[in-house]
Structures are given as structure tokens and as C-alpha cells.
Amino acid sequence: MSCLPSRAWLPSLLAAALSLSSGLSHAATGHAEDVDPSIGTGGDGHTFPGATMPFGMIQLSPDTAMPDFKHAYKWAAGYQYGDSSLLGFSHTHFSGSGHSDLGDVLVMPIAGDVRLEPGDVAKPGSGYRSRFSHDSETVQAGYYAVTLSDYGVRAELTAGRRVGWHRYTFPAGKPAHLLLDLRPSIYDYQGKVLWSSLRVYDDGTVTGCRTTRGWAPGRELCFAMRFSQPLRSRTLFNRETDNLYKGFAGPGHQPEDRDAQSGRALEAVFDFGELKQPLGVKVAISPVSEDNAIANLDAEGQGWDFDARRAEARAAWDKALAVIDVDASKDQRVGFYTSLYHAMLSPTLSMDVNGQFRGPDGAVHQATDTNGKFEFHSTWSLWDVYRAQQPLMALLMPQRSTDFIRSLIAAREASPFGILPVWAYQGLETWCMIGYHAVPVIADAYIKGVRGFDVDAALKAMVASATYAPYGGLGDYMKLGYVPIDKEPEGASKTLEYAYDDWSLAQMAKAVGRKDIAATFDKRAGNWRHAYDSKTGFMRARKVDGSFREPFNPDTAGYGTDYTEGNAWQYSWYVPQDVAGLVKAMGGDANFVTKLDSVFDAKVDPSKFANVEDITGLIGWYAHGNEPSHHLAYLYDYAGAPWQTQKRLKQIMDSQYAQRPDGLAGNDDLGQMSAWYIFTALGFYPVTPASDEYALGRPFVSRATLHLSNGKDFTVTAEPLDDAHPYVGTVTLNGKPLDRVFLRHGEILAGGELHFTMQAEPNRSWGRAAEARPSSMSGPGNRWPAM
Fold it and tell me: What residue stretches are annotated with the Glycosyl hydrolase family 92 N-terminal domain (predicted)?
């Protein structure tokens, strides 16, 4: 996923917006040792290598570059493995996003002379950035360390939920300094700060805030910082007025030592003299205020035992990852647990210890609802995570899902538009991507038994989002049954995604007994048919007059086409609620399979997608590096050819994931790519979130045990599991033959064993019958609840 700068409806919404002022019971099993956070830090993975906690508010990580917006895509997480120097360490980062921002509260330890500008990467010593070697890096779950070659400083980082912990060991004989730069943003190195402030208290506590006009306009982030060693001196700079661009030393250029500064270009240098022991630094952040940041630091930043904090972070990851035990080779375990780690980074805690959070209206709110207090989370890439990452959380961590849903509802109630988040972080909305995919997140969780949230408020929020006419051509969609391309870009994709979201809303309404709502949205769920062109066999966008837009080329992708980050080859399969209907529309099983084969087997020149940076990981037209393709391999199950699903899954797993920095084929997108890997390795996948079914594939680990929140275990086994036996021969559930190619959520929650017997050749008879296939709206074999 990467976002385009605007949508047709966006200016009016922004103008209006700116006018408004779990606990797991199983013991830790040490799986953190198999996590490698460097995976995805190279290529297009856009992950960060630094320290964080599961779903934590702090992501303390090194930044190698913060270029201007036009060049920021590769550095969406602030770090690229191929770089050889660091700017410093900042406290907030996205994991695997297709868009950039954050990089708040950048600090750099400096031994010797201090420079106030980063300098030229090609000219070592020209600024405060330092060279480093990957040989000096230690990258672990909850811990990061590196040696800054130009200063001889050993930097170590770990994290609590709201506090970042630093330990810097300086070389003997040189004065130790810490530089704080409030100017940088991963969205744009300079020029995006609207206002910032710095203050030093008598006890040495440093606080500050800044407001930026990055991806989410008007975002405010505050912090509080303390040091383990007494300050010798400090200097606060306002670079707009101090006019010191060659360092702060020099005749006639020493600025006044101020206790406070405000402006748009603030820096500070804190001096400690020659140190005989490491310097500890602890930083708490708050989206609300300096006072809240201090309260966060007081509550969660006690003492100076860095090693104890590091051990706590490691223990938190061991506990979180203990939800699944796998038997596999070392490489497979690293791939599996790193994926599970990445899937547990977002959404992030975005609430202070006093329960306050900032909402999409820019105001401060309290995290309480009809069920009492909860923890507010944000960082929602909903176009991505509704597909597998959030269903994975509903399966493994339903208590977390409850907080997530309560957060979505709270964000909706604080929204000036009265709708659920689309792409939000730190409580603020960006309006990135399409669909109203908070709806299937809520519906999927409810259908799968997640409770503890206000169901009436949830359904009200879902309907409000699905009927908000100004959003993305939704008004025309409700009138015409499709989004007209002559009034709204990417009309085919929007029509298809709205129809699926409508179906998920109908499932929720049925489950709570609201037949009136269910009837409305069941009907809308069939709107995918308005996008299907039987003459070409592709999904296309229509104009207001009902005709398809011409000329048509199924290969064309990019903004201004019928599709969002894809083309007709990728989007023509997006009917997860009615795959059986799509099979029939395409001429039946044989024709469907033949056309699906043509997607994977096509000879495609990757340069066709040079203008769409997120379309990566190509296997023919299939693009695993972008989410619209993620369910395609499982669609063979719906046409009676599950052995083809097994074949394609092995192609994808073998070519799109690897245990190295460039081991992700595309943006991890806040854990979606990683969640796809986890489900696929287990042997099943949620093709249709908001149903209770998973399509079966084939496992990629010989044994995996899910330790469920209800105290039961569900185990998946496979044998013989090797390259010589890539196909499923038979499947048993609790020792009984399973003749269908889907698994029910309740069967997992009941505990037991799903066993795959693998073989060298395809079993072409298993799963062929209509009743053996996963459910679809129009059948055959629809087992979803009727109204």
C-alpha cells in the first residue's frame, strides 16, 4: 500500500476537519530468540530494526535518512539496510507502511565536537550523522545496539510500552554530548514542523512538544526526557534565529543558554563532560501534553536499570509469541516468529497512563465507554490489515481484539464526520486508501466470538460508515449500485471493495438479529456484478450512463485507471463474499481455473508497474507485494481444484519470503504480509473475513500448536513435509477424514488436531464436490446464516 496525495472528496473533508479546533495464560517459551527484526529492513519491506513492545506506543529505532517527501518511500520506516550512516535514534515509526511519517524526538550521542546539521552522507564528518557497520549491530526483539564509528559510542536501545530507554557508552577522554533535534520528520526532513517547544526543568527533566503538517495534518506529539548523569551545561537552539549552521562553537556565535525555546526549528545540546560510566536516557511520549508525558515517565520510567528493562521487553515478546509453538528448522522458525512479531506491532497503544487520547477531531478524549475503561489503539492501515492481520488477532488474541474494536468505535464517536477510521495513526485520520474496512474488522471479530464491546454502538458506527455519501463516491454507489468512473477515480476497485464491506456488515446485522439492516446490505453485497464485464471477462469501471469506460486495457495500472494499486488482472478476482458467483460468471470451474492459471503463468515485464511502486513480488500478474492479490491462490479451492492452491502457495512461499533484510517482497503493511505468512504456514487462510470459515491450503511447518485464550490447544501436523511431497493427500480432523477444503473457526476453538498427509502427486478428487468447497453468497454450498 502506498497512498496518493488526494481523493476527489478530500479537500472539503479536510477543510471541515481543520476548522475544528491480553494476557496469555501459557508460560513464555523463548520464541523471541527466533525473531530477526532486520528482516524487511531492506528492499521494499519498510520495517524498522529498533526496539518496541507488542503493540507498544514507543518504536525506538535508528534512522538512516529522512529525505523530502518525493524521495521518502524507501525510508518509510526511517531505516534502509543498504545505508552506511545514521542520523540518530527516534521514538516513533511505522512498520512496513507504504507511506512515511513519524520519526519523532530524534537524539544522537556525540563524543567530541558537536555539529548541528546532519551533514552530507557522502562527506563523513560534515555533520552530526555517523557511519556504522552492520557487523556492530545487534538486532533482537525488544533490543537494538550499534557502534557509531565516527564517535566510538556504543548505543543500546530498549523499550517499555510508553518509554524508550537508551544506554550510551562513550570513549574515554572525550566529552559526552547528546543532541536533540526536533526538526526531522520521516515525511520530510525539514519544513513540516508548524511549531515546537523545549523546556529544561531545575531537576534536569527536559520536555517539549511539536506540531507537524505531515501525513496527518496538525499532529501534536509531546515528550519528557531524563538523564542518568548530571548535566554540565545545556544549550537550546532556535535555528530560525540563531543562524548557526557550522556548529555552535565560534567567536560571536554562542547563543544564550535558555531554559526554554519555541519556534519551528529547535535543537538542543546537552553536555555531560567526560564520563566514566554509560549515560542512560529515558524518554516518554504523549499525543496529548507535556504534563501527560511526564506522568507517563513517572509511571513507567522508574529507575535506571537498563538491563532489567531489556529483560522485561524480551519477556513481553516471549509471552506474546508463546501463543503458537512450531516444530521446524531454524530458518523456518526465524521466518515464522519474525512474521508473528511483525504481526504484533500494530495497531499501537495511543493513550496516556491517565486514559487520555487525541481523537480525529484534534480534541482530547478519555478512553472509557459503556463497558468501562479500555486501552485506546491507533495506527490503522485498514485497507491492508482487515484481510489477515486482524483476523489473526481475533483468533490468537481476542482480548486484544476487544480493545481494538472499542478503539475503532471511540475514534468514530470523536470523528467530525461520524465514521470509522480509514487510515489513522495517533488518533488522527489520513483518509488514505479506499473502502470502509473497519467494518469487516468488527464483523469478523464478532462472528468469531469476540465480545466485550458495545454491539449497538458498533453496528451504528458500521452503518454510518457505509452510508456516508461524501466519501469516495459512496453517494453515487448507493444510487447506481457502482462508483462511476467519470465522477470518481478507481471506480471498479471501489465498487468491489464496498460490496464486500457491505456483505460483512450484513453478516454482523444477521448475527445480532437486525434483519432490516441485513437485507439492505445483503442486496448491496451483490453490486460486484455491476463491475463484471462478461465480454472481456474482467472487472471494469462504468460511467454514469451505465457504459464501461473505453478504451480498455487490462494491463494498465495506476492512479486515474479503474483500479487502486492494481490492474484488471489483479482486481477481477476481488469478490471474496461470492467466489462461487464469480466462478459461474466466468463460465464455470474449468474456465475459472484456466483464467486463474493465466494470472500466475503470464510473462510480465515488471517495468509495466514502474509508476505504481507498491506492485512488487510478481509471479506473472500475481503481485504478492500488494494486498489485492493475497487471496488469489486460495480461489482454486472454490472451483474444485485445491491441489492448484497447494501448488501456488509453494510458489509464493518459496519466492516471496526469505530470512534476510530484503526478505519481504513488498511493504509488510503493518503486519498484513506477515499475517499471510503465518496463516499459510499453518495451512489455512481467511479468504472471507466476517465468515467463520478458513480456506485450506497446505502447511509449511511440520507441527504447530495454537494455545488458545479459552485454555485449549489446536495442533496442525503434516507428514511427510518436504519438497518431494508438496501436495495434500488426505486431511483428518481429530482423527476423522475431512472431505472438505475449509475449516470452521469453532472447530479451532474446540481444540484438537488437524492432520495433513502429504504426497508427491496431486489428489485431484479431494475437494471437488460443491458441498466440499468454502461458502459463497450464491452457493453452491452456502452455509452462512440466513436472514
Answer: 35-286
